[in-house]
Amino acid sequence: MEPTFKRLYRAVTMSTAPVWIALIVAPRARVTRRLAEAAPALAAGLGVVYGGLLVASGDDGERVDFRDADSVRAGLATGPGFVAAWTHMVALDLVAGRWIWERGLSEGRSTRLALLLTWFAGPLGVLWFSVQRRLRPRTG
User: Fold this and answer.
1) Which residues of 30-57 are buried (b: 16+ CB within 10 A; e: fewer)?
2) How many CA atoms lie within 13 A of 75 on its CB side?
3) What is the rounded CA–CA span in Å between residue 97 and residue 91?
4) Which of 33, 51, 117, 125 is the most buried (most CB within 10 A)?
5) Within 13 A of 61's CA, how many CA atoms are on the CB side?
6) What is the DSSP letter of 77?
7) How many separate helices (H) and strands (E) can be counted in the chain?
8) In sequence order, what are the residues at sequence separation of 6 or more whose Cβ sits closer than 8 angstroms to the Cβ of residue 124?
9) pTM > 0.70: yes or no
10) Beta carbons of 115 and 101 less than 8 angstroms apart
11) pLDDT in tens, 7-34
12) What CA–CA distance (Å, rounded) separates 11 from 63?
């Protein structure tokens, strides 16, 4: 992969780390609330990066046919395609993590494990939080 896309991959990955660390380590801290309030803007910025990468990934004239697994795999094998997919995942995980954090605070429940799982394994964290809420519903 070209150095530009390697740097962009690292930047995308690190851009959300302060938010995740705060959500997990200090969920009730003032700095965490500020970072969480900034998370939608960060996710929107990642959306802009994602859109630019999608445009850049089509520069070679090849269009990904989402009905064909080999075409999708080939698209993801390019620098822009890979970083676009990664940016997509990072942004969606951030949105999910902020939702988990916010719901956890309002429901008075710990979300540390769910947030850690969401940060590193996306849907598994959302699944864990859903199971946690189902097993121990809060009333009132």
Assistant:
1) eebbebbeebeebbeebeebbeebbebb
2) 22
3) 10
4) 125
5) 0
6) T
7) 7, 0
8) 117, 118
9) yes
10) yes
11) 999 999 999 999 999 999 999 999 999 9
12) 26
CA distance 129 to 119: 13
Distance of CA 75 to the CA centre of its chain: 20
| Tokens 């942004």 found at | 91
CA–CA distance, 101 with 25 (Å, rounded to integer): 11
C-beta of residue 104 within 8 angstroms of C-beta of residue 126: no
Closest CA to 74 of 65, 137, 83: 65
Is residue 44 helix, strand or coil? helix
118 close to 111: Cβ distance less than 8 angstroms: no
Q: Chain-centre distance of CA 16, in angstroms?
A: 8
Contact 1, 82 (CB under 8 A): yes
